[in-house]
């Protein structure tokens, strides 16, 4: 069966729902800064996620927990300035929404107001139901995130595959249905069995965007520095590397160091 491919001038949360219906897979990557976001937007990426993985990738922290709301807004505003077509979604960082629904809404409003982003994402299901409701009631589009939820790493103790056991799988399915029913526009499923992710994608109306969740999802997301091969020590099975930039950039910088030391750079043509 062939499906009509639609050209989108600007991706909206509605476009993603249409893509699911048309069977057009959704492409999403993280973005944390203007220059990278320009490249992603220009390349035709559908969704740019200002992930709290900036805590690891940008700031060098071990986990996503330390990054602050102010820091997320700084990254998000840089990405928003680069986006002409892509939808920009921003992670609510750890500690900015778990206390109570009012705090969650305040944090979401700050992101929308101060960065100009189009939507927010937060981790969790039933436990944060009231917070999600409040944010949705304010007219802010919400993307869910279930499965491996890195903000709860100390509860689980490792980054292993989630929902392999029946009980956790049932909770995941019911959380996914809840997020769909409440009116979230999409859902990220991280590191869960492909069969389960496919079953969920087929049983809910909103797009399911997977990371390590198999090809039955309605879209895929990766951390951009991982797929470009800049983070050479991060090697999960779900990661496909499209470049080996760690190596290429190391060689380029080493060459520059050599050229400066050997006085090869700058030449007459490279000075005034
Ligand atoms: N660079 C980067 N990429 C990511 O995908 C990412 C981050 N940072 N930071 C926040 C979260 C953490 N994420 C993770 C972290 C670890 C694995 C993982 O598979 N780790 C091990 C296996 C761990 C285990 O099985 O115990 C691996 O194979 O590398 C997956 C996603 C996804 N996010
Ligand atoms: C891996 C994606 C889904 C994420 O939440 C992040 O980059 O923070
Ligand atoms: Mg995140």
From TrEMBL:
It is found in: Cytoplasm. The active site is at 190 (proton acceptor). The keyword Ligase does not apply. Pfam families: Pantoate_transf. 3-methyl-2-oxobutanoate binds at residues 52-53, 91, 121. It catalyses: (6R)-5,10-methylene-5,6,7,8-tetrahydrofolate + 3-methyl-2-oxobutanoate + H2O = 2-dehydropantoate + (6S)-5,6,7,8-tetrahydrofolate. Binds 1 Mg(2+) ion per subunit. GO terms for biological process: pantothenate biosynthetic process. Coiled coil: none annotated. Keywords: Cytoplasm, Magnesium, Metal-binding, Pantothenate biosynthesis, Transferase. GO terms for cellular component: cytoplasm. SUPFAM superfamilies: Phosphoenolpyruvate/pyruvate domain. The keyword Transferase applies. It is an enzyme of class 2 (transferase). Its main location: cytoplasm. Its cofactor is Mg(2+). Pathway: Cofactor biosynthesis; (R)-pantothenate biosynthesis; (R)-pantoate from 3-methyl-2-oxobutanoate: step 1/2. InterPro entries: Pantoate_hydroxy_MeTrfase, Pyrv/PenolPyrv_kinase-like_dom, Pyrv_kinase-like_dom_sf. Homodecamer; pentamer of dimers. Belongs to the PanB family. This is 3-methyl-2-oxobutanoate hydroxymethyltransferase. The lineage of its organism: Bacteria, Pseudomonadati, Bacteroidota, Flavobacteriia, Flavobacteriales.
């Amino acid at each position: 069966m062939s499906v009509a491919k639609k050209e989108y001038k600007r991706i909206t949360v509605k476009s993603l729902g249409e893509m699911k219906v048309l069977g057009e897979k959704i492409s999403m990557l993280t973005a944390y800064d203007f220059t990278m976001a320009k490249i992603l937007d220009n390349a035709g990426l559908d969704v740019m996620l200002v992930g709290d993985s900036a805590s690891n990738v940008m700031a060098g922290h071990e986990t996503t927990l330390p990054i602050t709301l102010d820091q997320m807004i700084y990254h998000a505003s840089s990405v928003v300035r680069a986006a002409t077509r892509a939808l920009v979604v921003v992670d609510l960082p750890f500690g900015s929404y778990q206390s109570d629904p009012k705090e969650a809404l305040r944090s979401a409003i700050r992101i929308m107001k101060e960065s100009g982003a189009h939507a927010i994402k937060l981790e969790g299901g039933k436990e944060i139901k009231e917070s999600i409701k409040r944010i949705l009631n304010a007219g802010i589009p919400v993307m869910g995130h279930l499965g491996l939820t890195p903000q709860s790493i100390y509860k689980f103790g490792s980054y292993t595959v989630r929902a392999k056991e029946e009980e956790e799988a049932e909770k995941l399915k019911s959380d996914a249905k809840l997020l769909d029913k409440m009116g979230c526009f999409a859902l990220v499923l991280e590191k869960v069995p492909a069969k389960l992710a496919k079953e969920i994608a087929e049983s809910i109306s909103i797009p399911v965007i997977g990371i390590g969740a198999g090809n039955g999802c309605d879209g895929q997301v990766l951390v951009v520095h991982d797929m470009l091969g800049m983070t050479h020590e991060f090697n999960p099975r779900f990661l496909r590397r499209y470049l080996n930039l760690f190596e290429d950039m190391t060689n380029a910088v080493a060459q520059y160091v050599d050229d400066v030391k050997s006085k090869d750079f700058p030449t007459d043509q490279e000075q005034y």
